[in-house]
Amino acid sequence: MNVRQNMMSLSIIALLTVSFAQPSFAATTPFTDLTQSGAKDKILALQQQGVIKGVDDGKFAPDEKITAAQGVQLIVNAFDLSLAAIRFVKAPQATDFFSKADNDAWYAESLIIAAVNELELPADLDPNAEWTKEQFIHQLMRVMETKGNLPMIKLVPVEIQDNHELTVDYQGSIQRALSRGIIHLDKENKLHPQKAITREEAAEMIYHALAYLKNHKPLT
Questions:
Q1: Which DSSP category does 153 fall into?
Q2: Which of 32, 115, 163, 194 is the most buried (most CB within 10 A)?
Q3: Model-level pTM?
Q4: What are phi and psi of 189, to 5 degrees?
Q5: What are the pLDDT digits (tens) for 93-140?
């Protein structure tokens, strides 16, 4: 479906977007379960900016794995993606884009926003499936580079010891993420691309991505 060919009244857009999460700068209670987290300061900074939220009662659950739906929502919120510039003939539903989605689920709005903002998400995306590190990195880089209108860069590929585990379509995104300092390899120069990504890892990548955009002016 070419979503940009559909037209919708501004009143419908308003109804759809009013409930979408936007960054909030209200005072918050710092997460209390980050004592052992090496990304504690970055996570708390994102919390204060309203970019990320906890799971409940001041808990961030840094070691918890994230699903595709949660990963999409993190990216949508972090980069303020919305439907503001899109018009449709009728209100879209998540199942218009993703066959396995639930139109009544908490993630439905985020999936719609992601789809119309042209994230490279498969039509058979399972919102409840755990996302791997390489899947999250690929989507994060796509949105970051588009949002920041970043220039192409000449890469000297970094040697990744577990490069054989990478999905071919994600290799470029991962190399660019390494070059821009969004991600780092471990002490053995491994990425562990097929490992399910944790909330801590995702938050730290988002922190680096937003910091990079802040320090690099977009192309004009």
A1: -
A2: 115
A3: 0.83
A4: 60, 35
A5: 999 999 999 999 999 999 999 998 878 899 999 999 999 999 999 999
